[in-house]
Design a protein that fits this description.
Elements (H helix, E strand, L loop, with lengths): L6 H27 L1 H6 L17 H10 L4 E5 L5 E7 L2 E8 L9 E7 L8 H10 L4 E4 L5 E8 L6 H22 L3
């Protein structure tokens, strides 16, 4: 008897799904059996990795920044919103937290730095920056002073290496922006 085309993969897929389901049931049974049994269970396809960096805990994120070689101090404003004060190449910047359900359960951070200048750049200079860059968006505030920011989504976590790369991208954007606006 011939089988319709495509039926074998469906059978194989059902077999894999059943095996995966049995592995999950075995893991649950091991957890129910106690700590010793739960420690010995292995589920194929699941690999434990290093802890991920996320924005759910500002103090833990500050520790990750310190591990990446930056100073980091958590500050809480009057509205109980956290932010981290840090510095790169002598320039103070902040990490602001966004997408928060509480003060300590956030999804994203925004790197942000502002500059007070005797002669701030014209809007055309800021627009030129924004047209040429994807990291580090700039604007002028109500007083005409330049700001640069960069949003980083940390929802579900990123590796420490990925977070370090985001910091490095911010460092480069910050350095280049300072040169672009003539701050130094």
């Amino acid at each position: 008897m011939r089988t319709p085309a495509g039926s074998r993969p469906r059978i194989a897929a059902r077999g894999r799904a059943a095996a995966a389901g049995l592995a999950v049931l075995a893991a649950l049974a091991a957890v129910a059996a106690g700590p010793a049994a739960a420690q010995t269970i292995r589920i194929p396809g699941l690999v434990a990795g290093p802890p991920l960096v996320d924005a759910t805990d500002p103090w833990a994120l500050a520790d990750r920044m310190i591990a990446a070689g930056l100073p980091a101090e958590v500050e809480i404003n009057a509205d109980r919103e956290p932010r981290i004060r840090s510095q790169l190449d002598g320039i103070t910047f902040f990490l602001l937290f966004y997408g928060c359900t509480t003060e300590v359960d956030c999804r994203s951070v925004q790197f942000i730095a502002g500059f007070t200048m005797n002669t701030p750049p014209q809007l055309a200079v800021v627009n030129d920056w924004n047209a040429a860059r994807i990291i580090g968006k700039a604007h002028l505030d109500e007083e005409g002073m330049p700001w640069i920011n960069h949003l980083v989504t940390l929802e579900h976590g990123v590796t420490q290496d990925n977070f370090a790369a985001a910091i490095e991208s911010w460092r480069i954007a910050l350095r280049d922006f300072i040169a672009h606006i003539g701050f130094r």
